[in-house]
Amino acid sequence: MARDIKLAGFKYNKISAERQEGFKGELKIAPGINIKNIEKSESSKEILSIEFIFSIDYNGLGKIDLDGKLFLAVDSKTMKETVEGWKNKKLDNEINLIILNIIMQKASLKALELEEELNLPPHVQLPRLQIGQPEKK
């Protein structure tokens, strides 16, 4: 079932990125999302406030942590289900997927920028062009 959920805001509270010198060993990149809290926004009854940490661990080479908040405009039924679900540690799969996808999309852009600045490998596969056979018409 499709829900009427709209992105109302997104902000970072803390951005941390570091690269360690002298790294030796096998590189493993481990991205992760930790949802810290979900509640009704204090500013509006129709806004859901979600605190999160998006992190990428480079197994000794470096680390990126993006601590932020996501604001979603939702209907009252979705608000009630989500806030109660969070308290019981049981989020609706559709809501959970929407939240994680928005965090992944927004935070990945910032992480790619930081990875470029620190010369860390990208945490996602970037598109590449290849020479191929011309298409037949």
Overall description:
- This protein is of the alpha+beta class and 137 residues long.
- It has a single domain (6-118), classed as Bacterial Protein-export protein SecB (Roll), CATH 3.10.420.
- Helices cover 28% and strands 35% of the residues.
- Strands 1-4-3-2 form a four-stranded antiparallel β-sheet.
- The chain is globular.
- The N and C termini lie far apart (41 Å).
- The mean pLDDT is 92.
Look up the CATH topology.
Answer: Bacterial Protein-export protein SecB
Q: Biggest sheet, open or closed, and with what strands and sense?
A: 4 strands, antiparallel
The overall average pLDDT, rounded, is: 92
Query: Structural class per helix/strand content?
Result: alpha+beta
**Number of DSSP-assigned strands:** 4
Number of domains: 1
The CATH architecture term is: Roll
Using only C-alpha atoms, the radius of gyration works out to 19 Å
Helix content: 25-40%
Helix tally equals 2
What is the CATH C-level name?
Answer: Alpha Beta
N-to-C SSE string, H for helix and E for strand = EEEEHH
| Low-pLDDT sequence parts | none
| End-to-end C-alpha gap | 41 Å
Q: What spatial order of strands do you see in the largest sheet?
A: 1-4-3-2
Shape: globular
> What proportion of the residues form beta strands (DSSP E)?
35-45%
Topology of helices and strands:
Blueprint: E1 6-19, E2 30-40, E3 47-57, E4 62-73, H1 76-87, H2 93-118
Antiparallel strand pairs: 1-4, 2-3, 3-4
